[in-house]
Amino acid sequence: MKSSMRCGILLLFLSYITLNAGAAIRLPAIITDSMVLQQRSEAPVWGWASPGEAVSVEGSWAKGSPVSTKADEQGKWMVKLKTPAAGGPYTLTIRGEQTLVLHDIMIGEVWVCSGQSNMEMPVSGWKGAPLLNSEQEIAAANYPNIRLFTVKKAIATDPQEDCSGSWSACSPQTVAGFSAAAYFFGRQLYQKLHVPIGLIHTSWGGTVAEAWTSSDALRTLGDFNAALDQQDSLRKMSAAAPKDPNHPSLLYNGMIAPIVPFGIKGAIWYQGESNVGRAAQYEKLFPTMITDWRNRWKEGNFPFYFVQIAPYKYGGDGIKSAALRDAQRKSLGVPNTGMVVTLDIATPDNIHPANKEEVGRRLALWALARTYGQKGIVYSGPLYKKLQVKGNRAILSFDYAKDGLNTKGGPLSGFELAGADGNFVPAEAAVKGNKVVVRAATVSHPTAVRYDWTDTSTAHLFNKAGLPASSFTAAL
After folding, report:
1. How do the residues of the chain divide into helix, strand and coil, expressed in percent and rounded to 5?
2. Cβ within 8 Å of residue 53, ≥6 positions away
3. Average pLDDT over every residue of 284-297
4. 272, 298, 385, 438: which could join 309 in a potential S-S bond, CB 3.0 to 4.6 Å?
């Protein structure tokens, strides 16, 4: 064969490789083998191909019914697949100029699990922060139909299209480093619903809520505009992003945006410790973040269940975390939200309570009752409803207490009263059916009452289901 002919054949071969390399279909990390797709939904499946390339996607549960589209000018494409009732395993076939086949796909219930270190804390625990019954829980974690995905930590000044991570079946090997609160929540759902469960864990210890909120949403508040303007300047100069994950919107960009719009049922959230001292701001910020995520996912007001921060010695005036807990309580005004109270399962000397199994169980109570409609479940502790004053007595009514109230750990304590001068003093309190009556010898005309209003307060008031009341403050 002549040299010129060999060169011509080689050039044709290289051109073929180049053309096909450009046409290769690429999928985000969240869409891969072993994932869980939300049942009975139109589950988004997306990726990248050559601009204008025809792409079809077909699940083996709907053989012969592919969904087709074309990649846009940037090469991005997306389809929505109708998913059946829970089941699997299935395959997912993506055809373009090349074909990809994903295996071991389950159809079930998918939840995003996010927050700071109390969500990040793994089933193996940490040095100085052990998890209750860690070794036994890891050894028993054989649940191949619970699937786990952890988003690798990342910060970015712009919303990212992809992240690092992979799906894996729950086993003693995979669960040890996975979020304990998320795992126990998912395990409870699996044991009660008997369907595959997908848990997408995306958290970063020591981080603030504004870092998990998009810049567009934050600008509606006004509090973070200076920091956002600085980030805009860095972006225009192509400078490196700030390395501190607590800058506004950086974690949303790096760890939430890449998993949107993966089909989910709802979200659980465990955060707030790093916003202690800014309760008034959090009262606006947290609902803004919830609404922001819902707007981004375009799944309507999906369930958003969160954990109230636990007692801990924060220092300072000794009451800042109580105010933050109350801001969390007030966030229940956002539709389709629910809150877990942890005043009874914490250690004030450790900011990471060891009993994450109970945290997960209480989160699951909200989901099982409110999201999945299971009957006969009491899913919340008593929540302050109304204050009445009769003479020198403050009479408190509560939601989630129709069967009555209980006390634990001795006489009912933690209540304070204030009169016209606004000074709170310790008060006596007693349960009367489903109400609490509060009085103090030095307050003849009460105008305000508060409960468990210190950093290290512990629970004394419960409903008959054994769930604790939240901190609160109330005034006439």
Report:
1. 30, 30, 40
2. 23, 70, 71, 75, 77, 96, 97
3. 98
4. 272
CA 287, CA 468: separation in Å to the nearest integer? Answer: 23
In single-letter form, the type of residue at position 140 comes to A
**Region class of 172: left (phi > 0), else alpha (psi between -120 and 50), else beta:** alpha
> What's the predicted TM-score (pTM) here?
0.94
CA distances to 20, 233, 311 from 396, in Å: 71, 52, 23
Q: Measuring CA to CA, which residue among 154, 118, 175 is closest to residue 256?
A: 154
Confidence of residue 229 (pLDDT cuts 50, 70, 90): very high
Token digits for 30?
A: 């969240």
The separation between CA 364 and the C-alpha centre of its own chain, rounded to angstroms, equals 13
Give a three-class secondary structure readout of 97-148. Answer: CCEEEEEEEEEEEEEEEEECHHHHCECCCECCECCCCHHHHHHCCCEEEEEE
CA-based nearest residue to 306, from 345, 271, 260: 271
Q: What is the pLDDT of residue 237?
A: 80
User: Residue 26 has what DSSP assignment?
Assistant: B
* Per-residue confidence band for 347, with pLDDT thresholds at 50, 70 and 90: confident
Give the pair of three-digit tokens for residue 131: 């998890």
Distance of CA 363 to the CA centre of its chain: 11
Instruction: Classify each residue of 419-447 as buried b or exposed e, where b means 16 or more C-beta atoms within 10 Å of its C-beta.
Output: beeeebeebebebeebbbbbbbeebeebb
Side chain identity at 328, as an amino acid letter? Q
**Tokens (6 digits) for 1:** 């064969």
d(CA 150, CA 18): 34
Whether residue 17 is predicted with pLDDT greater than 50 in this model: the reply is no
Q: How many CB atoms lie under 10 A from the CB of residue 464?
A: 14
Burial group, residue 136, by CB count within 10 angstroms (0-12, 13-18, 19+): exposed
For CA atoms 284, 286, 292, 298, give the dihedral sign. negative
| 144 upstream amide cis, omega within 30 of 0 | no
- Give dist(CA 411, CA 428) in Å, integer: 9
Q: How much is the pLDDT for 13?
A: 42
Longest CA pairwise span in the chain (Å): 110
CB 22 within 8 A of CB 249: no
